[in-house]
Amino acid sequence: MYETLLVPTDGSDQAAVAASHAIDIAATRSATVHVLSVVDDRAFLVLDEDRVETVREDLRANARDAIDDIATSAAARDLAVETATDTGHPAECIVDYASDHDVDMIVMGTSGDEYETNVVGSVSQRVVREAPTPVLTVGPDVEG
């Protein structure tokens, strides 16, 4: 049933905790773990044009580092791992990736900010609503 798991990461501690859960699930099923990090291009709207490329490269480097950390953990458990980066709105990119790669489940963290109005983070909330597959969200109080 769950042969392909997608783990989106922004490099946060919460994404790492979610990745830990995804790796445990994948290990019980010998599933392939896809790790995706999205450079949110909306951040460029407020930058001076001459700074955009420098910031973009910094964000891409951070995305690669976040991916590498999770990929290393999954590989240490003898799991097949595929990695990717994308640029755009994170929720859209995550949903598109899941569709394009026939992902069986998405496992992602949620910050839980402003819980009175937003039970899960805005990216997580949108992914839950739009994903073509089940989404397991790991809240901020869950430990890895």
From TrEMBL:
Span of the signal peptide: none
Family annotation (Gene3D superfamilies): HUPs
Highest rank taxon of the organism: Archaea
Residues annotated as domain UspA: 1-138
Membership in a protein family: Belongs to the universal stress protein A family.
Database matches in PANTHER family: STRESS RESPONSE PROTEIN NHAX, UNIVERSAL STRESS PROTEIN UP12
Name of the featured protein: Universal stress protein
Protein source organism: Haloterrigena salifodinae
